[in-house]
Amino acid sequence: MELSSTPRGERIYIGFFGMRNAGKSSVVNAFTNQEIAIVSDVKGTTTDPVYKAMELLPLGPVMIVDTPGMDDEGELGLLRIEKCKEVMAKVDIAILVVDGTLGMTDGDRVLKKMFEERNLPYITVYNKLDLVPQRIGKGRTREVVQDSIWVSASDKININDLKEMVAHLVVDPSNGRRIISDLIEEGDIVVLVTPIDEAAPKGRLILPQQQTLRDILDSNAIGVVTQVDQIPQVLSSLSKPPKLVVTDSQAFKEVNELVPEEIPLTSFSMLFARYKGDLGEAILSARFLDTLEDGARILISEGCTHHRQCNDIGTVKLPKMIEKTTGKDFHFEWSSGDSFPDDLKDFDLVIHCGGCMLNPREMMHRIRICQNAGVPITNYGVILAHMQGILPRVSAPLLGKS
Q1: Which of these CATH numbers, 3.40.50.300, 3.30.70.20, 3.20.20.70, 3.30.230.10, describes 3-169?
Q2: Tens of pLDDT along 368-401?
Q3: DSSP 225-242
Q4: pTM for the structure as a whole
C-alpha cells in the first residue's frame, strides 16, 4: 500500500488541543508546513475539528487533527468541546498547545489530566516563544521541562525539534496486531470469497478485502480471490488445501456448506474484530442475543457514513435476520461515523461493524464505553456466525491469536 493511499483507519492520529488563542492552528500549520487551519487573532476561529491526512516525515502516514478551544463559550461552545472530547478517543498522540505569554492555565491542566486518564501520550508545547523574554516576571523562566518544548509558530522556531519529539512517541497503533499475516506463512494459500452483489462497490473491492489481500501478499503468501459459486472449482484446482478461507460474513451459510470441515474458515469481519477490537468480547457478547426479550433495544453501529443501498446489511438484512432467528420483535437504533453515543444505559446489545474506517484506539474506546455501561458489544461477522450455528468453527482459526 502506498503511503499516499493509506486508509484513514491505518494512520497515526495526532491531535492538537488547547485553549482559544493559544495558537493551535498556527502550530498545526507550522508543523505540517501547510495552511491546513485558518489562523486569526479572533478567539474561537476553529469551530470544529479539522482533519488532514498527509505524509509527515519521519513519521509516515498521519492524520492531523486541529480542535476547537477547550474554553469555548456558549451553547455552541459546549457542543464544540464535546467534539474535542470525541477526538481524544481516537488520537494516538496529543499535542497540548499553551500560550507561552500566559503560561499553564487551569484549563490546560484539565486537558493534561484528561490525557493522563486516557493513557494518551502527549507533549506540552509552549507557543509564542518570539513574544516571551528569557525571564517572565519573578521566578518564572522559559526553562524546558520533560515532555515539553518552547516553539514559535510564526517564526518556525523549534518546529523540527517538535517533530522529532512526536516521532519518538510513535508506537504501532495496532499494538503489534495484524489482519492475517500472523496466521499464515510464506507460500500458504488463502482463498478470499468476495461476493459481487448490489452492495458491492462498482469496479473495486471493499476496504477490508483490499487490506486483507495486501497483508497476504506482504507475507509472500498466495491470495486467491473468488465468488461463492466458484468455490468448488477453486478448491479442486489447487495443488494443496488452502491454509484458510476468508469470506464476506453475509455469505457464511453458503460458504460453510461448500468448504470442507477440515479447511479452516473465517470472515473479514471477524479478522477485523481481532485486529482492531476484542474478538473474545465479541464472541461472548453474541450469546446475549439469545437472552433478550421482546422490545429489547439493539444499537447497530458503523464506523463510516457510506451510502446505504436498498438491501443494506446494517439497516435491513441484519435486523430482519435477528428477528427471524429469535422470533422476537426488537427496537433497533443506528449510529454511523463519529456519532457513537456516550450514554448506552438504555441499550441491551450493541452490534458494530468491523471498524475498517476506525483506528484501533477509537474502536477500543467504543468497546470500553459499552463495558463501562454493562452493555455487551459484538460485531457483524460474529453475530451472523452465531445465528447460523457456526461460530465455533469460524472462530477456531483465530482463537489464541487475539
Answers
A1: 3.40.50.300
A2: 999 999 999 999 999 999 999 999 999 999 986 5
A3: EE-GGGHHHHHHH-SS--
A4: 0.78
